[in-house]
Design goal:
Blueprint: E1 3-7, E2 10-12, E3 18-25, E4 33-39, E5 45-51, E6 58-60, E7 68-73, E8 78-83, E9 92-99, E10 115-116, E11 120-124
Parallel strand pairs: 2-11
Antiparallel strand pairs: 1-3, 3-8, 4-5, 4-9, 5-6, 7-8, 9-10, 9-11
């Protein structure tokens, strides 16, 4: 059973940066596509980015305008999401997800990932 634990969230000022980590246990992460999602207060959950199991393919939500970078280190069984030039509208709980059968072909809020972490809060405020 794959278990995912996110870390790295916190309070950051507009224009600042954060790196979220997703540590996996219970299985080898390189068998899984990783997806990052977020849910802002009062809004639905939306997909932010995904990365293929080898790391060779990445996709991002268009509205991010190139500010986020997804990566993974399969040797460390860990995924990452780098948030740069953050904006107040990036405030949300961020979730790491993984699925062995989902492929990272695009951003689709309806895609079902099997494994989810507990989430980490990111708050962007001055």
């Amino acid at each position: 059973q794959l278990q995912l634990v996110e870390s790295g969230g916190g309070l950051v000022q507009p224009g600042g940066s954060l790196r979220l980590s997703c540590a996996a246990a219970g299985a080898t992460l390189d068998d899984y596509t990783i997806g990052w999602w977020r849910q802002a207060p009062g809004k639905g959950r939306e997909m932010v980015s995904c990365i293929s199991n080898s790391g060779g393919r990445t996709k991002y939500r268009d509205s991010l305008e190139g500010r986020f970078t997804i990566s993974r280190d399969n040797a460390k069984n860990t995924g990452y999401l780098q948030l740069d030039n953050v904006k107040p509208e990036d405030t949300a709980v961020y979730y790491c997800t993984a699925d062995a059968d989902v492929r990272c072909l695009g951003i689709a809020d309806g895609v079902q990932y099997e494994y989810w972490g507990q989430g980490t809060q990111v708050t962007v405020s001055s």
